[in-house]
Specification:
37% strand, alpha+beta, 2 helices, Alpha-Beta Plaits, two-stranded antiparallel sheet, 116 residues, flat
Length: 116
């Protein structure tokens, strides 16, 4: 079964972009991705640019409106994702608990719908 792991953290949580702390954390991310791959669970994943680079599109009454920024103002923002293929939710929870940002952010697990 496929699950999307959505990675959230506050802008001021965790290591600052470009900092020595962020550089020191990178091997943890690389090891996590490698472990997913070796387990055959990795399908896709990537980091996202900061939330202030987002564009939100809405269509109302046939009119397309785009606005700068994310859909909603929140304390935590979506920073990246992993798409994994594992046996069940318990396995997805186990992988989510190992994401390097879990100690200072949150990981939302969403099952992927399969349409026949």
């Amino acid at each position: 079964m496929q699950y999307m792991l959505l990675l959230y953290s506050a802008d001021d949580a965790g290591p600052a972009r470009g900092s020595a702390e962020q550089a020191a954390e990178m091997p943890l991310w690389m090891a996590y991705g490698e472990a997913l791959g070796q387990a055959g669970a990795f399908v896709a994943g990537d980091a996202l640019h900061p939330a202030d680079s987002a564009t939100t599109v809405r269509v109302r009454d046939g009119r397309t409106v785009s606005t700068d920024g994310p859909f909603a103002e929140t304390k935590e923002v979506l920073g990246g994702f992993y798409l994994i293929d594992v046996e069940d939710l318990d396995a997805a929870i186990e992988w989510a608990s190992k994401v390097p940002l879990a100690p200072y952010g949150s990981v939302e697990i969403r099952p992927v719908m399969v349409f026949d």
